[in-house]
Amino acid sequence: MNVSEAVVTRKSIRAFLPTPVPDATIRALLAGAARAPSGGNVQPWKVYVVNGESMGDLLNYLEGCDPIEEPEYDVYPPGLWEPHRTARFALGEQMYGLLEIPREDKEGRLRQFARNARFFDAPAAFFTFVDRRFGPPQWSDLGMFLQTFMLLAREAGLDTCAQEYWSSRHGAISRFVGAPENEMLFCGMAIGHADPEAPVNTLTSERFGVDEFAVWI
Question: What pTM did the predictor assign?
Fold first, then answer.
């Protein structure tokens, strides 16, 4: 698989098969992802992996925790503006349409949202933390690290879902993995093999055309 194929076929998977992912595979992907660009080579990412037995332990642990906490950062800015607001809204409608969950079925939509807490049944995952003293440039580095991991996962025949959902469970996750107070949870990353029979996995989000975001001077 070349880079272009990995970019085009990478998508957020929301239904995984139970097929295990070896620790050695995740280790190799993380080592490759660590070659992502990093300003000044500070490499601000910190990763905690859950797989196999620890995944089961985490899911059991979460059942005894408060389901939602106050996030430590805004996933979206207040009063999201156009055209970004419409792009986000359209994606949600497209996803729930594939799941046949109408807008008025609020309980159904909440049940689907709650599947985040099980990594959409992925057998493996990791959590990415960043030191609270780092600023926006290091958060940018973190994004490049995550994207590099996801593209390498595609090359390895795996699928992923980056989950900012976990920002609303930061206390529980920090306690489970033993993260120190100076580390802030950014997101989780579900890892596994996509269920080819799940309609939700046919979802391909629309992207703005180049002329909508690029200006030639």
Answer: 0.94
